[in-house]
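user: can you give me the structure for this one chain? tokens are fine.
assistant: on it. calling the predictor now.
[tool input]
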Amino acid sequence: MFGLGHWELLIILIIVLIIFGAGKLPEIGAGIGKGIRNFKKATSDADKEESGKIEEEKKS
């Protein structure tokens, strides 16, 4: 995963925990999850739209 080992991920998690505190972590995780979900939806919508245009051009 991005060339990071288990120890590096653990250190990053500890630093994030220290900076934001345990109470903010669920909010941060939910925000990141929503962002990833919106990004995937936008890219899949763009792919569907583009493939629809290609199909229309083939019919013409």
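assistant: here you go. The helical segments are 6-20, 25-59. The two ends are 45 Å apart (CA to CA).
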